[in-house]
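May I ask you to comment on the folded chain given beneath this request?
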Amino acid sequence: MCSNILSMVLGDEPALPDHSENPAVSIIVPCYKVTAYVADALDSIRAQTFRNFETIVVNDGCPDTEGLERVLAPYSSEIVYIRQENRGVASARNAAIRAARAPIVALLDPDDLWEPDYLEAQIALLQSHPEVDVVYPDAVMFGDTRWQGDKFSDHFPLSADVTFENLVSERCIVFGPATIRRDALLRVGLYDTAAGIAEDRDLCIRMVKAGSKFLLNPKPVYRYRLMRPGSISSDSVVLGQSVLRAYQKVLNSCALTSEEWQWVDAAIRRKTAEIDLTLGKKALYAGDYREASRRLKAASRVIHGNYKLRAAIFMVQVWPGLLSAYIHRRYPTESSYVR
């Protein structure tokens, strides 16, 4: 299947296409259960106004490899294709970064899209700011979401300085699919394959601690798909637990000042409370009032001044059935209530 697509197994030396000039950018597209979307992503690469690049597609043990390779066949002369066992997006990106020939890597998730001037805008900023290692864009959100058409920056703080304190306090969120100097990635050991779906947060923290500089591209040149069915990133509890592990890793493995330790400790308590709140709402929707009460009380010990939370704790103890009936009448599904 797809015999003229370059294929390799992770661990082998990649046999790369013979191009007459070295690419300026290596585009990295990790694939797992995205057969229905990846052609649109590759078409957005085809439409780029900046043309000096290579595209590396990593099949991360996709369960429908035959279907994926059928979709990739029309792009076979345009991509480097790496095939590996399923090890997660961090491992897939690492495989592509190791195989990359360009000094800059650009990350595109296969269910997302680029505007035609994405690479042109991102590369221009890196060229005009040689001290910067990471340029991250704003994005327009689309998909099965109430935020359809909104910018990422409408809901998440992109504009704060990317410092250690701002990252762990979440006063600044670095949009993950960024454009990054390859040598800066190599200096910090690439992505941590044990970081779960918080691989971007973990990487940014380590890069900031290593002295890397970040720059926001305020132009929304990226199109970010939200709430794709089956996407693990749509599970806020799984994401929160991955972020918690990343923060705990910082405490255990990074040389921190006492002030930095306090920032991370506060971030752990805050994230734990957010998870308790979500699990409490899930339990309440399911009618498990004892678990709901336990989780909501735990969240309230950290989340102060939330009158809805206080009211929910009171109601679940006094009139749980009435509260449940109200919630189910107003919110037809658990996800519409929890989010």
Notes: The first strand starts at residue 25 and ends at 31. The chain has a mean pLDDT of 88. The chain has two domains: 25-237, 256-338.
